[in-house]
Specification:
By secondary structure, the protein is of the alpha+beta class. The protein contains six helices and 14 strands. The longest helix has 51 residues, at 242-292. 37% of the residues are buried. The mean pLDDT is 91.
Amino acid sequence: MALDFQTPVPIVDGTTITREEFTEQYAKPQKPVVLRGLWKQYPAYTKWTMDFFRQTMGSIEVGLFGNRKEDLSKTLQVPNAVMRFDEYLNLIEREPTDLRLFLFPIFKHRPELLKDFDYPKITSGYIKVPFMFFGPPKSIVRMHQDIDMCNVYLTQFHGRKRVVLFAPDQSDLLYRLPFNVHSTVDVDNPDYEEYPGLKYVKGSSTILEHGDTLFMPSGYWHHIEYLEGGFGLSVRTLAHTLPMKVRGVYNLTIQRTTDNLMRKMNDKKWFEYKKSLARERAQKAMSRIGLQA
């Protein structure tokens, strides 16, 4: 049985939707939406290509991350490989690999690229630290929440991505690991014996193409698959509600510090404890659903 995320994320014309419409229909109710063509107003829309980055910053060395299996509870911090940026771009166009480049602070290397775009007036409160993401076809970004609980505006510039989303109120049924923002669930191959709570979750999905901007509200779970080698850029705004803002601060300070400390003390035992607690929370969530039925 496939996991229920067949509901499509709504798509609207990002060149015509007003700030008021976006606020009332999507930002305030915290509903995902694809804003098609939102970035057409900026030079980056047509200027940023694989060849452009090869020519302007190909000699920069970048750290790359693969799909590690040794501990699904870890946030990847140490790269699997390092290579020249132009060599990496050639690689993801030429052959299969699981190496991805994420949270790439490209503007630290080339601050002049900031002139190629601005922050869309569709909203405000931007955290003006944009990041880029590069990946090869068929590579997977495992399901997670963003640790700071910000709203994310992910714009695709080259290649296509499939994005699966789940609302934050389904965290227990998705077996969120305590003191963490990850799940051990495999979205495309769900194990209902190991994770029976998955029978009760409902998500949505979309395929991002060139010029599409996906609004991912605060705390939304997302699983991303690169259908083709390509890249995108994310900008963020602060969480819409005070509880989510507080949660983001907690995640970045107390939660992350506690998790790192406990993993250093006894990594394997701590991971097993977190999985056990996640199962208990999922069981309680299923019991609540049973009482409401």
